[in-house]
Fold this sequence. Notes:
By secondary structure, the chain is of the alpha/beta class. It has one domain: Rossmann fold (3-Layer(aba) Sandwich), CATH 3.40.50. It contains five helices and five strands; from the N terminus they run βαβααβαβαβ. Helix 1 links the parallel strand 1 and strand 2. Helix 4 runs parallel beside helix 5. The chain starts with 6 loop residues before the first strand and ends in a 13-residue tail after the last strand. About 3% of the residues have low confidence.
Amino acid sequence: MLPEIKKILYATDLSDNSAYALRYAINSAKKHDARIIILHVLEELPANIKAMVASYIDYDEQEKNAEKNIAKMMDRIKKRLKAFCDQELKDDPESMDMIESIEVCQGYPADEILRKVKKFECDAIIMGTHGKGIIKNTYLGSMTKKVLRRVRKPVFIIPLPKGETDITFHDS
């Protein structure tokens, strides 16, 4: 018997076409009567860059900047959800009630995705991926690969279309 899907982690990079993958998250949540956790990770600076920044900006100021960035991203996600709801869920606004929480954190995306899956006891992950480079149709992105290698939950990888879609965000 397949395990039930009661909680879905939707990991987003907030790219213009990320709403395309959100469609899948909402649809899956409806089909499984599941809840959705939305996650965006602000990528951690490499250690050598952090050390260089620390010589110019003290720790408290760095923390304040990080908090501002998190609040800014949280606001951006909420605005996008409203736009998505207005466009996609006009006839079914209660679908937005399936969103349990929005999480914005700082760290390494693959690590944070795995950490949040465990913390929130998610049963599945939905994430969009962009093909990059010459061999974009052959390989998944490096972050996606890192998640797939380490997770023991179903992962739904949604290829994000290139160019505009009917739900492309223009707030970047």
